[in-house]
Amino acid sequence: MAVKKNTVRGEEPESNLPLWFNEVAGIALIGVGIILTLSLITFTPHDLPILSIGGVIDNEPNIPRENSIGVVGALLSFFVLRVFGAAGYLLPIGMLWLGIAYAFMGAKFSKRTVIGLFCFVLTGACLLNVTEVLTEWAARNYIFEPGGFAGLWLGTNVLEALLNKTGAIILLVMLYMIGMIMLTGLHPIQFSKVCWANFKQWRVKRANDRERLAEKKGKRSAREAERSARQLERDNAKAETKEKAQEENERAKEVKAKKAALAKLNRAEEDKKNPQVEMELKEIPKPQIIDSSQRRNNKREPGAKPFERKKNPDAISLSTDGFENYETPGFDLLAFDESEPEDEGMDQGELLSIQKTIVDTLKAFGVEVTAGDITRGPTITRYEVYPSSGLRVSRITQLEADLARATKAERINILAPIPGKDTVGIEIANDNKVAVPLRELLQDEAFTSAKNKIPLALGKDVYGNTVIGDLAAMPHLLVAGATGAGKSVCINSIIASILFKFSPDELRFIMVDPKVVEMQIYGRLPHLVVPVVTDPNKVVAALRWVVNEMEKRYRLFAKCGVRNFDGFNDRPRPEKEEPVVVEPEVVDETAEEEPDPEAIESIARALEDGELGPIGGGDDDELDMEEEEAEMPDRFPYIVVIIDELADLMQTAPADVEQNIARIAQKARAAGIHLIIATQTPRADVVTGIIKANIPSRIAFQVSSALDSRVILDTKGADKLVGKGDMLYLPPGSAKLERAQGAFVSDEEVEAIVEHCAAQSEQVFEPSIQESIEKGGSGGGDENDVSDADEECLLKCIEVITTEQKASTSLLQRRLRLGYTRAARMMDILEERQMIGPADGAKARDVHI
């Protein structure tokens, strides 16, 4: 028999629903409310697939839909607006309210709230239709009625027809308020009463607070008078105590002075008895102002050359045909204004004023320094200061921002201390920068010095000294910097420096230009081994050829018993012997020569032991070795590989490019092969640790952050450069950075140099090299193009596929950690050697070994 639960009159009976129902219903209402809100807010009638309402037809909906919920949101919002009109926006608000109340406020499901929500939305639609508001909005959105179908049928056709407009509005406002109270549970009349009572209470409390504040002010004034009287007494007592202390200090000073005078007299008497030499204190030299930005005019003849070509008709290199009468460029190809007036931008008064500002600013922060030399360079001016004894130089570097503010400098750099000196340098950029022409550097004695094998004119330092690098000692160079900082001009000056000394039979270039536009000006140089490589896919093949050339040279070095490039070129040559004319013997063709049985037996024994190789001739490797031995060159030329943008290559084939660059950088120095790599993206994934470890010499131009500077130089500093050729140079074998202004060479000067070199001789490319690069770029190639490194990798690949009995590019990538390009090349070589089967879609290839 069922038992009915007793309920209190006026309260709703307890719900028999489970405990989890309220939370589930609340979450569902919140989710639906959010979807409906987003669809209504972003509603536009042009999102509907086909709209045919009131004779308006639109067959081209928006693609993609502007509605946040897509096609479903467009249809759902259109349906709600057609039914309830603008009052449809109240429906998601009510749903969100109920969802929050059920899920988070502990409310229970009841019929009152559902009826209240329905009455709240329906009466709102009727009110909109009766009052005729939002009519234009309804027509613009193809709703046609501001209250929708519900407002039209119930509000206009029923209530307005029975009660007229006034009566219908009164009734609908009453029902709207009732629906809102049933939905929210708020009582507006009671709420208004409580607000009015709280307002009156606040006014009374405010009046009481004002009275209490006035009383406190009166008491506070009396307390302050007493406190000031007591403070006056304490001040008088302190003043008396201070006077007594000063009198005691004066007496102590007098006693101390008498003791010091007595001790001085005693020392003087002792010195007379035992005389000795005293060392004078170190004096700071008189500060000087040095202007090193002035151009040095080294008078040379217009057609003079930094180096004279030594002709050696017997020399043999990669290709010497057409290079016998080659003449190196002269200074007349470079622009240089010899009548340039002295620089009027150097104002000694202004320099001294800035130095005084620096000293005064440091003194204001408690840092005592003494002014030193002022050196004005082409780009920056270095102000030197002598720190006082016992002062930490780190205190000066901490005031970098304050010094920049005081001197109104855009960017400053502090060297604490200056390498090799006992001063601290504060570098400030000049307002008027002075360019460093390449001709001035080429005419300097440091460039023509015999100790530099491959001299590179880099620029001038802050003291006006010429910065000349030796590529043979570096032996490789990394140039990095942001766009527009001077990296391309530096590469042009390096190439021009090399062209002024070397002929095509002494040095050859391999230029890699992924950006296509930077190196095209050098396309006519006779120094090129192959045309400028612009396809990133062919760069790996070009680097692989360089590796093979390096290994070939080392084999010939070992055969000749020399250790390096210079030893091979300077080795003693045997004197050429005149050919001996031997008279031919008269042979009787009719006589038959009997074979020697001992010779036949020795040849058979040699064939069995394998000493004479396989019958029918040797393999391809032995033929190649014989060709190398037969084509022993008299000397080798230098090979300089210039890569203009490393970041593009690292994106194409990072593993292969990094491996080949590392092998060249590790071993190619003794073979006369050198690398110059440039990049404007100094990231850690571009300039990797392996590349940095094998290229110690670096040039950094201005970069955007200290992180990029650490990637290039392993220290900060490049982020504080001022651009336009301002650079930091890390020379070989040194950890000290040199700040310099890079050499400037214009495009017109480069064109004139290239035009002169191209007019001396025609280009002679090596067909074998070019064919190898072309095949490498297209993915082709035969077994003869496989290097020793590839053979080692092939052995590992064969071991993997024989163990797994399947072959695929992804398998080699995973097991041997190869890049995709290298793994695919290994698969092609294995297929050519018929060790694996052809590709069959996505299936693994068959293994034939």
UniProtKB/TrEMBL annotation:
Keyword set, alphabetical order: ATP-binding, Cell cycle, Cell division, Cell membrane, Chromosome partition, DNA-binding, Membrane, Nucleotide-binding, Transmembrane, Transmembrane helix
Superkingdom of the source species: Bacteria
UniProt-annotated stretches for the region Disordered: 211-324, 571-598
Lipid bilayer topology: Multi-pass membrane protein
Transmembrane annotation, as ranges: 20-43, 69-102, 114-131, 143-162, 169-189
GO terms, biological process: cell division; chromosome segregation
GO cellular component: plasma membrane
GO MF, one annotated term: ATP binding
Protein name (database record): DNA translocase FtsK
Species for this entry: Rubritalea profundi
